[in-house]
Design a protein that fits this description.
alpha+beta, Sortase, Chain: A, 3 helices, 8-stranded mixed β-barrel, 29% strand, 221 residues, single chain
Length: 221
């Protein structure tokens, strides 16, 4: 009789433990699913992207399939043709630093070794939405930390000259995706690794967000 009671007690304890573990797992999974879903909703990232954990360029912090051109009206396009990877597309001039830096289409190492890289998935400079430029902290953007609010950034391309004013300076984690969100108006986003004098792969990104304030369009023949 005593053995029977002990067996029932042990069985009850075992069942209780199973239910507690199962409940904890379900709750944790549900919370994870909710948080992930909320994150994807806020950032506009698809579930497939999240699961695949797409490769992000170490300097631009931009996923390979992001595109800021989705939904752009034809009338908003300033460039009749898209440049090819590696093409020289313009120049970034930073008046405060008296620095003129060539801009190449693409953010692979080949482009970043020569100048500033334009992320191919974003709009071209001057166009509505978010145009993203990236550069190395130890070469073309070594003095970017000196740039702050209200400083000017001037981009010259085949479409014209576009003057931007810095609206926001941010320092974010390397995996922060808010850098790449679409913008309702013409915006220039500059990004580089941070801290500037950090030894090894930098854990953060230095971000400048600038709004278009003036343009001188090239006359079309």
């Amino acid at each position: 009789m005593l053995k029977s009671k002990k067996l029932i007690t042990y069985s009850f304890l075992l069942l209780s433990m199973i239910l507690l573990i199962g409940g904890a797992w379900f709750t944790t999974t549900s919370v994870y699913t909710f948080v992930k879903g909320y994150f994807l909703y806020q950032t506009g990232v698809s579930t497939a992207e999240s699961l695949n954990e797409e490769k992000v360029n170490s300097d631009s912090n931009v996923p390979s399939d992001y595109s800021g051109k989705v939904g752009m009206k034809e009338s908003e396009r300033l460039y009749p043709d898209q440049p090819d990877q590696g093409d020289l597309i313009g120049e970034l001039y930073i008046p405060k630093l008296e620095a003129a830096i060539p801009i190449y289409h693409g953010t692979d190492e080949d482009e970043l070794e020569k100048g500033v890289g334009h992320f191919a998935g974003s709009v071209l400079p001057g166009e509505a939405d978010n145009s993203i430029l990236s550069g190395h902290r130890d070469t073309v953007f070594r003095e970017l930390g000196e740039i702050g609010m209200n400083d000017l950034l001037i981009v010259t391309t085949a479409a014209g000259e576009f003057t931007y004013k810095v609206r926001k300076v941010r320092i974010v984690d390397e995996d922060d995706r808010t850098v790449i969100v679409p913008k309702p108006k013409a915006t220039l986003t500059l990004t580089t690794c941070y801290p500037f004098h950090f030894s090894g792969p930098a854990p953060q990104r230095f971000i400048l967000v600038a709004d278009l304030r003036g343009e001188k369009l090239t006359k079309k023949e």
